[in-house]
């Protein structure tokens, strides 16, 4: 793929990074304010699970269209529209007073925020070559964790100072400021844009007959459920198991996501090192890296038996370190095997599957907690699902073969 010499491509990466940070601030606020809002509105755990599931289900459905939307409309306007809508939806939470009001706000937020993943992956696939791409994806993998680190440190304090309504309004307003800055910046022309526009369109039916797509679908479905479950329930876990209040749970939660950020960095660096410095094939580098992370998450069920919140934070930190490293390589796998012009659609379909599995895990958590079974059942799922995901990817793609970035041929359907 022809490279853009223009240094503005790094400015684009920086702005996408900030958008994903804001994305995770908006989606995590409700989890952090759960103790306060649950007391004020008398929610049950299943009420909260339904709110989180509304986000997941709306995002899952939207992922079927946002990848296509980004591929067709382009990054500039497509991303601006998505961020604008999700910011307004985040602000709408301030005016909700019923469970149904919060469910509606979460649903719109989830649908709009689904634009973030295909936009970030398409940025990497469009403006960077295969070796640079893993680094850029690893950098992009840090953004959710930066948002997840800042949110527990700032949101509880903001809520104590100004109230929970103002907290939602301020967080959403920052997204609207981002939209203005994004539209003011002249995004560099996409390389090979004329070629991609003239290339034959790829029907989703073709993607769904492609075994590469199913490797992405299963990889996302089996692992995203862990991320979504912990994102929505981690503050409650520290509150329920260790008695931490809204004002004291910020530091351990922030530590967990700091570890997750390190996982995203290493997940991008390790395969790049193995391919660039050690001469490994894409297949060997990707699968070895994923195996390492799949093994690192195995101890996570131990946290339900510890007495210290900080010991639990270290166990959860290792788990999300492993998740982000593994997840970065699923994104890398997608850009390895699909050409840039359809990578948004490919990752969108995978994210659809990941959000549905996340919704199922969230509902399972609500049921488990309401019926007195606690957090152990979810922890056991978290421990084993990455090895299952890697086995599924290997069975579907015994050998990962990267697409030739200089060729403009149609997607080769590999169904057998």
From TrEMBL:
Pfam families: MFS_1 (PF07690). It is a multi-pass membrane protein. The chain crosses the membrane at residues 51-70, 77-96, 108-128, 135-155, 161-185, 214-234, 249-270, 291-322, 342-362, 374-397. Residues 12-401 form the Major facilitator superfamily (MFS) profile domain. It is found in: Membrane. Keywords: Membrane, Transmembrane, Transmembrane helix. SUPFAM superfamilies: MFS general substrate transporter. GO terms for molecular function: hexuronate transmembrane transporter activity. Its main location: membrane. PROSITE patterns: MFS. GO terms for cellular component: membrane. InterPro entries: MFS, MFS_dom, MFS_Na/Anion_cotransporter, MFS_trans_sf. This is Major facilitator superfamily transporter.
């Amino acid at each position: 793929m022809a490279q853009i010499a223009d240094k503005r491509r790094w400015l684009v990466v920086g702005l996408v990074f900030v958008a994903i940070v804001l994305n995770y601030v908006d989606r995590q606020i409700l989890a952090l304010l759960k103790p306060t809002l649950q007391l004020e509105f008398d929610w049950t755990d299943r009420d909260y699970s339904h709110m989180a599931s509304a986000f997941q289900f709306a995002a899952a459905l939207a992922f079927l269209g946002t990848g296509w939307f980004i591929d067709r409309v382009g990054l500039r306007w497509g991303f601006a529209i998505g961020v604008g809508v999700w910011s307004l939806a985040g602000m709408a939470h301030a005016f909700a007073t019923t469970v149904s009001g919060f469910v509606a706000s979460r649903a719109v937020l989830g649908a709009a925020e689904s634009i973030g993943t295909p936009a970030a992956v398409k940025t990497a696939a469009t403006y960077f070559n295969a070796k640079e791409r893993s680094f850029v994806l690893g950098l992009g993998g840090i953004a959710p964790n930066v948002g997840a680190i800042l949110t527990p440190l700032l949101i509880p304090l903001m809520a104590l100072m100004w109230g929970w309504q103002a907290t939602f309004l301020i967080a959403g307003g920052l997204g609207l400021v981002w939209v203005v800055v994004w539209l003011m910046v002249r995004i560099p022309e996409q390389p090979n844009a004329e070629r991609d526009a003239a290339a034959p369109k790829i029907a989703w039916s073709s993607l769904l007959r492609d075994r590469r797509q199913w490797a992405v679908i299963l990889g996302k479905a089996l692992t995203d459920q862990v991320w979504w479950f912990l994102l929505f329930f981690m503050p409650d876990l520290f509150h329920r198991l260790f008695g931490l209040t809204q004002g004291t749970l910020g530091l351990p939660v922030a530590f967990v996501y700091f570890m997750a950020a390190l996982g995203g960095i290493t997940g991008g660096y390790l395969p790049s090192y193995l391919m660039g410095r050690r001469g490994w094939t894409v297949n060997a580098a990707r699968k070895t890296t994923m195996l390492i992370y799949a093994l690192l998450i195995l101890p996570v069920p131990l946290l339900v038996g510890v007495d210290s919140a900080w010991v639990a934070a270290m166990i959860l930190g290792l788990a999300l370190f492993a998740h982000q490293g593994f997840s970065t390589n699923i994104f890398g796998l997608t850009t390895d095997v699909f050409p840039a012009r359809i990578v948004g659609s490919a990752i969108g379909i995978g994210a659809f599957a990941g959000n549905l599995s996340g919704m199922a895990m969230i509902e399972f958590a609500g049921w488990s907690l309401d019926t007195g079974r606690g957090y152990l059942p979810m922890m056991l799922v978290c421990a084993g699902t990455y090895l299952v995901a890697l086995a599924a990817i290997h069975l579907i793609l015994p050998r990962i073969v990267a697409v030739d970035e200089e060729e403009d041929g149609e997607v080769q359907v590999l169904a057998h």
